[in-house]
Amino acid sequence: MTPDKLSLLRLTEMKRRGEKIVMVTAYDAPSARLADAQGIDLLLVGDSAAMVVMGHESTVPVTLDEMVMLTAAVARGSRRALVVGDLPFGSYQPSDEVAVSSAVRMVKDGGADLVKLEGSERRLSRVRAIVDAGIPVMGHIGLTPQSATKLGGYRPQGQTAGSASDLFDAALALEAAGCSALVLEAVPAVVAARITAALGVPVIGIGAGASCDGQVLVWHDLLGLTGDRVPRFVQRYADLAGEISRALGAYASDVRAGAYPQEKHTYPMSDDERRQFEALVGNK
Question: Which among 205, 203, 210, 198 has a CA at the least distance from the CA of 179?
């Protein structure tokens, strides 16, 4: 651990002082280095990689092996930020033992500082087991993409009094089970505000309003690398898809026109060595 590495205690202090926490997803070392250099607090190696990196239609297909590989890459690129390894679908649902084994791999092989898992009441024993193994856990409630089909699709949650109350109770239960932080996704801002105020651990929102202790966005969404259809809570801060398209088009045009590479892009060889080379291959 480097001297300036963030700690969970520091995140809790930030919540207490009203300092906003910044989290972004990352899936490789270059992205981690760029985010780390800008003072991003948390790097979430999200199972969203299944969709934005691997081209799947949902987060479900990504495997634990793939998530460990991506997390290790991000960990190698991070110095200050805490790295959160997302436990993918199937890696913790079967039993407490499977959950602990998956979490251990994420930390030992992936270099994660803490792990994240989705769900509420049925996940409490998983949280306790992982925490008992000495691994910090970040909970995730509201819209939970791994169970989107059960929730009726990628839809906001907690929009009725009853469902909002259930989310509130689930948040308290996850904290009591040992979660060090919580992600709230796609819930009404008023509900998120009450949950944030009630919890002693940091609450990171995504589509949950400004009252949360921090915010998270998907790398590809905020940089404009995804298509036009993005959730309403996404703020795009760049149009990298347009810039990349222009660069690739210019490169292809230069290659086809013979404008690239130029002499300045090649490596020299002395006249003497060139003559010797020609002599060596001349009769072959």
Answer: 203
- 209 domain residue, yes or no: yes
Q: How many domains does the chain have?
A: 2
Alpha helix stretches (DSSP H) within 116-270: 124-132, 148-151, 161-177, 189-198, 219-222, 240-257
Average model confidence (pLDDT) across the chain: 94
Local confidence band at 203 (pLDDT 50, 70, 90 cut-offs) = very high
Both 151 and 271 in one domain: the answer is no
Distance of CA 69 to the CA centre of its chain: 13
Residue span of the structural domain in which 51 resides:
8-238
Whether the pLDDT of residue 99 is over 90: the answer is yes
Helices (H), 109-160: 124-132, 148-151
Say what percent of the chain tops pLDDT 70: 97
Per-residue CA distances from 154 to 5, 149, 190 (Å): 35, 8, 20
Q: Under 8 Å CB-to-CB from 76, ≥6 apart: which residues?
A: 29, 32, 111
CATH number of the CATH domain containing 51: 3.20.20.60
Longest dimension (CA), the chain: 87
Q: 88 and 210 in one domain?
A: yes
Annotated catalytic sites, by residue?
Answer: 185
Residue 245, burial from CB neighbour count under 10 angstroms (0-12, 13-18, 19+): exposed
**For residue 1, what pLDDT band results from cuts at 50, 70 and 90?**
very low
| Contact between 140 and 206 (Cβ < 8 Å) | no
Does 210 fall in a domain?
Answer: yes
Q: Are residues 263 and 184 in the same domain?
A: no
- Using DSSP's 3-state secondary structure scheme, residue 62 falls into coil
Residue 115 near residue 86, CB atoms below 8 Å: yes
pTM of the model: 0.92
228 confidence band (pLDDT: 50, 70, 90):
confident
